[in-house]
Amino acid sequence: MREAIEGLIFTGIGMWMLVSTIKTLIRKGKGTLAPWSPATKLITNGLYAYVRSPMIIGVLLVLLGESLIFLSFNIFIWALAFFIINNIWFSLFEEPDLVKKFGEEYKEYKKQVHRWIPRLQPYRRGRGFGK
After folding, report:
1. Dihedral (C-alpha) 110, 126, 32, 8: value to the nearest 10 degrees?
2. Would you give the end-to-end CA distance of the chain in angstroms?
3. By C-alpha distance, which of 86, 109, 84, 85 is closest to 98?
4. How far is CA 63 from the centre of its chain?
5. So where are the chain's domains?
6. What does the mean pLDDT of the chain come to?
7. Within 28-130, where are the H helices?
8. Residue 7: its pLDDT value, please?
9. What is the per-residue pLDDT across 23-62, written as a single tens digit (0 to 9) for each?
10. Model confidence over 2-27: pLDDT tens digits?
11. Could you give phi then psi for residue 10, rounded to 5 degrees?
């Protein structure tokens, strides 16, 4: 029972993160999740002010929550594989593409905001850690 409650908490937080980042993508990035309609502006606010990949973290939390709710080792393995695949994808394709698209602005953001570990204070353009 305890695992199910923990799983529901993980899943709830993950779903909140997904909805929040999708709203930010549409409102601030002027784009969608669809590859034919990507964000046209670099998003560095909302959850993106704390971590570069909040949407993927949200999906991971949902998968981990499901693995707890259903006590499923297979879902846990899928979550692990999802994390590894996305880490490779971001390193080889997504982040180089964002550098091409947004240039120095993205490079500075990337220096200040970690891909997976959230900052304690929000990132502000032109300001580093704790400034």
Report:
1. 70
2. 44
3. 109
4. 14
5. 2-112
6. 93
7. 54-69, 73-89, 95-102, 104-112
8. 97
9. 999 999 888 888 788 889 999 999 999 999 999 999 999 9
10. 999 999 999 999 999 999 999 999 99
11. -60, -45
